[in-house]
Amino acid sequence: MTALLTVDRVVKRYGGLAAVDGVSFTLGAGDVLGLIGPNGSGKTTLLGILAGTHDPTSGTVTLDGRVCSGRGAHRAVHAGIARTFQTTRLFGGWTLREALRLARRENRRPADVASDERIAALLALDGLLDRPCTSLTSAAQRLAMIALALATGPRVLLLDEPAVGMDTAESAALARAVRDVADDLGVAVVVVDHNMHFLMPLADSVLVMASGTVLATGTPAQIRADEAVIASYLGET
After folding, report:
1. pLDDT tens for residues 155-179?
2. Enclosing H/E stretch for 99
3. Averaged over 37-52, what is the pLDDT?
4. Confidence at 237, pLDDT banded by 50, 70, 90
């Protein structure tokens, strides 16, 4: 695998507390990584480091061999890393197409960005581009958040609890859409979610965090069978 994203011994300390402690992994184009662990394990802090909203205390994040950590969220987006959040953040009465147009202003590689129609098709938002974002269903609004992230032309997409509040059918549709995005656009995806029925069939690999460190990494099947993971996390679900 040719590394697209490399996380190398990343540490984030708050005083004497290491919220993230020596985390390393690599992702190639089109890879989907599930990031799981108990609450307080460091997942959200790690996601913030990848997105540029938190500076690492030590260690680096590189994209295509160029360091992109510690330079702020704006530069991370320009480098090719986009993030969604647990809560939907859409633009009042704007249509989805209008919101996508605004998001595209953050892109510095316009030739690499899929068209509005292609993004909508990948995310099963066909026919909704000219609808006000706030008129969409809750599930469609979550997909719209991913669409806005894709409009920035990312190489890496970070999804923070994308399936929260979704029923079984909605989360299954979301998983298919994320898989299509990874395969069709070659975007590497990091997904944080507590819904194992959504995450495990989607992920190519899974990284489990506990107390800021990496407890285990492997395929979904390997993680499901890992006794330490079962004891610290999966046994709780």
Report:
1. 999 999 999 989 999 999 999 999 9
2. helix 96-104
3. 94
4. very low
CATH of the domain at 160: 3.40.50.300
pLDDT for the residue 220: 96
Closest of 34, 3, 56, 2 to residue 158, by C-alpha: 34
For strands 188-192 and 156-160, give the pairing. parallel
Show the tokens assigned to 111: 């030739």
| Residue 22 burial (C-beta neighbours within 10 Å; 0-12, 13-18, 19+) | middle
Q: Identify residue 100 by its one-letter amino acid code.
A: L
- Residue span of the structural domain in which 166 resides: 5-236
**Cβ neighbours, 10 Å, residue 29:** 17
Site of tokens 């986009």: 82
d(CA 169, CA 67): 39
Nearest to 210 by CA among 80, 36, 17: 36
Split into its structural domains, the chain has a count of: 1
202's enclosing H/E stretch is helix 196-202
Q: What is the mean pLDDT of residues 99-108?
A: 80
Query: Whole-angstrom Cα distance, residue 80 to residue 68?
Result: 9
- Give the β-pairing of 5-14 and 32-36: unpaired
- Contact assessment for residue 34 and residue 202, using Cβ atoms and an 8 Å cutoff: yes
Between the alpha carbon of residue 34 and those of residues 55, 170, 219, the distances in Å are 22, 18, 10
Of the candidates 85, 67, 55, the one whose C-alpha atom is nearest the C-alpha of residue 5 is 67
